[in-house]
Amino acid sequence: MKEKVILQINGENREVFIEPKRTLLEVLREEIGLTGTKEACDTGACGACTVLIDNKPVLSCLTLAVACKGKEITTIEGLKEGEKLHPLQASFIEHGAIQCGMCTPGMILSAKALLDENPDPGEIEVRKAIAGNLCRCTGYVKIVEAILAVTRGE
Amino acid sequence: MRLPDFSYLSPGSIEEVSLFLRDHGKESKVMGGGTDLLPSMKQRICAPKYLIHLESIPELNRVEFDEESGLRIGAATRLRSLEKEPVILERYPVIAQAAGEIGSVQLRGMGTVGGNLCLDTRCYYYNQSDFWRKCRPKCTKMGGDTCNAIGGGKRCFAVFSGDLAPVLIALGAWINVVSTRGKRRLPLKDLYTGNGAEPLSLEPEEIIVHVEVPPIPKEGFASYLKYRIRKSIDFPLASVACVLVLDRKQGICREARVVTGAVSTKPEEITGIGELLKGKRIGDALVEEASELALRASKPVANAASSPAYRRKMIKALVKKTLTEGVRQSC
After folding, report:
1. Given CB atoms, is A147 within the 8 Å cutoff of chain B?
2. CATH topology (fold) of B58-118+159-213
3. How many CA atoms does the CB half-sphere of A152 hold within 13 Å?
4. Pick from B60, B112, B115, B109: which is nearest to B80 by CA?
5. What is the pTM of this model?
6. Contact status, residue B196 vs residue B123, Cβ threshold 8 Å
7. What ipTM was estimated for this complex?
8. Which of B43, B138, B163, B282 sits at a 20 to 30 Å CA gap from B119?
């Protein structure tokens, strides 16, 4: 049975008409058209679908959209301010931390959640924070460098 | 992969849940974070008619402590909370450490204590999509009458893969279970039947409401070692939880509890080790004997990402490592 659900996404209220079985990932990509969040494994093992809910990184492929009422959802699209990229986004580009780009949105959001909680992490904390985001292209070195560069204000 | 159809409920009290389960328990699944249930539903391993989300019940999501009775953890407490809760870090660091080894940051932010304790048993031939499983006969765990992992027999060898249970069992934890028929309190180890196909001793109308963990003795050493291939995301392939209480002055063991995980259909306490070590000074020879006992008690089959032989050897190595470390730290 479809029901009307109002989701707060990147600061805006979006209304959708959906069944309980729709995951947040499906709703973001298919109902709202925000395709920045990626579907890869769809079973919670890769982190590509990571979004922030109330500033906490979660897997949207395993989150029911109907369970998100009244919560603040942040997707990768919500990071830039106007046309200005978020420092993490700019750093990823500068440091060559993006190859195919599938892991990038989830990776950046996990990094953002870390830096919001701990603005000065060491390399080990960075690696732990992104341990739930798999990348098949880069080997992670540039990704870790890009995140650490932001902490140093570069 | 799409989820199958279901009706969704998010009750606000334990009472509401119990009333609903009394009438619809057999067609329902209770959900904490959904990190085990939803993948299974996507793979059509199960397709409950009703999904009852336990997210909105405050009493299930709290951590309490008092000096006498110890820790009380609500069943819907997120695993990430266990990692960060000050009283757990201070008084039960092994619980924070074990919780921190589960999944990933995202999975720990969603997954719950109750969910990890009630994690479905896993098997390479079971945790697959409907399409994949159609190529083989229906296995015992799916309601058929053969095991695809060993290629015959009726017994199910699906592996218990939770990280919290071995630790909490070693710490002597109890669980509190509720239904409209009343409450019951039982040792956590009695939650597990040992039947890979039906691993939990809960009735369809029952839910776990909280876990009680008695205080760890001051001189106690507790640890959790998890063997897996990658440093995150993976389920355990073999794990060992250990609680050791040594008399510091004489160096004699007062109590030893070793519980293995991921090498059986349930967490297994190796009671022989407790008997072997009690009242003795633990040296290399006893550590070797104890770890050999653990190896012989572990009989995994080829249904996980590492060979049964290697997993058994890892049990021995982990028991050796933890006992050696326990003795070293306690003296």
Report:
1. no
2. 3.30.465
3. 10
4. B109
5. 0.97
6. yes
7. 0.97
8. B138
CATH topology classification for B220-330 = Enolase-like; domain 1 (3.30.390)
pLDDT per residue over B152-173, tens digit each? 999 999 999 999 999 999 999 9
Q: Are B267 and B259 in contact (CB under 8 A)?
A: yes
pLDDT at site B297: 96
For residue A59, the chain B residue with the least C-alpha distance is: B106
CA distance B57 to A68: 16
State how far residue B97 is from chain A, nearest Cα, in angstroms.
13
Rounded average pLDDT over B182-187: 98
pLDDT of residue A68: 98
Among B26, B25, B28, B22, residue whose Cα is nearest residue B8: B28
> What is the count of residue pairs from A and B with beta carbons less than 8 Å apart?
81
Mean pLDDT, residues B166-181: 98
Question: What type of residue is A55?
Answer: N
CATH of A87-151 among 1.10.150.120, 3.60.21.10, 3.40.50.1820, 2.40.30.10: 1.10.150.120
Nearest CA in chain B to A132: B104
What amino acid occupies position A113? A
d(CA B213, CA B167): 10
Give residue limits of the domains in chain A: 3-78, 87-151
Closest CA to B317 of B221, B237, B222: B237
Q: What is the largest CA-CA distance in chain A?
A: 51
Q: Note whether A131 contacts B: Cβ–Cβ < 8 A.
A: yes
Superfamily of domain A3-78: Beta-grasp domain (3.10.20.30)
**What tokens were used for B165?**
């249970």
DSSP state, B82? H
